[in-house]
Amino acid sequence: MNITLNKVTLAALTLLGTSFTSNLFAADISHSLRNTQQDNTTENYFELGLGLATGAGPTVEEDKDNEWAGGFLVVNGSYNWRGFFIEKFGESTDPLLLGYNAYTGDNWSLDIVLAPKGRGIQGGENDRFHDLDDRDSATMLGGRLTGYIDNNIVQFSVKHNIGSNHNGTTASALIGRNWQVRNWNFHGMTGVQFFDAKLNDYYLGISADEAARTDFDEYSPGSNLNLTAEVGVTYPINEDWVFRSTARFAQFLGDKTDSPIFVDKRDNAMSLSTSISYVF
Fold this sequence. Notes:
Elements: H1 7-15, E1 23-24, E2 27-28, H2 29-33, E3 45-56, E4 67-81, E5 84-88, E6 96-104, E7 108-116, E8 139-149, E9 152-161, E10 169-181, E11 184-195, H3 197-204, H4 208-213, E12 224-236, E13 241-253, E14 268-279
Antiparallel strand pairs: 1-2, 3-4, 3-14, 4-5, 5-6, 6-7, 7-8, 8-9, 9-10, 10-11, 11-12, 12-13, 13-14
């Protein structure tokens, strides 16, 4: 989500892999489920709006509550040119994505994708993390396979870091569908995401050197799975304005939130958001 709240909330969500949704062929799967037409083409459009959100999740600061609320700016869009595409969907795990459509059939498509990931915690920005090494951004390269089975959309994705900071890998599998009730478009989605030990250790681990110069204990997490679910509704107010409301839930399996970086070590996160957007 594009929640403009505070650095604590953003850092916690970044460290957890922003684990609510994933991507579809040249369009975020959650975004695609909000549309009534299921086609294998990328729409060229731009969307701007405002929204409100509330939720709860793990925290990384001692004086911050694990529940939050605030406003956010909706800035979404996509552009396709001869198979190459760029897309920005704030509700996605990859808010900015570059790619190329390598194959499109009647029911399946395959994309090669490049996803610059947002940075993790920067030590100089918070006293609690002052002496920790910076967790820099990662560039993930991989592929995603998307298909239409009856009225369902399924999507599989694997991405590997090609930068120098870690050699982590992520993978996901999701399934979703939508239902049209008059002008209301309801959708539901569920899935599982995998984060390997190298990626988790880079963002959530505490090295021996860091433990020696801070109050954090040495810690090295393993790989983990996130179970995710989403339900939502979209309503076109008129030709240009769109209303959306979405509820999301993620359950973290494994020792990810056992990291000393987290103060509140709850093993799940949830959110409810509502927005109104103008589509150009």
